[in-house]
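DM from R.C. (forwarded with permission)

"hey, sorry to bug you on a friday — could you get me a structure for this? deadline for the figure draft is monday and I only need the backbone to look sensible"
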Amino acid sequence: MSTGIWTLIVIIALVGGFAAGFFAARKYMEDYLKKNPPFNEQMLKQMMIQMGQKPSEKKLHQMMTTMKANYGKK
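My reply, with the result:
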């Protein structure tokens, strides 16, 4: 085979590898964020205090439940 064909094969393999790696990493991060959401009760409590609300335990649990239920939806 000539050098041009080998160069083309290498370029196609690199592009395919980058594409496969990108989609695999994206899928992994989506699954990770579904299992480990980037928020917790302490963060919600601080956010409510900054907004001028007094956070009660009932309100915190209600907000956490709502956020967890809506987190996976797009």
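R.C.: lifesaver. Helices lie at 3-35, 41-50, 57-71.
me: no worries. The radius of gyration is 23 Å.
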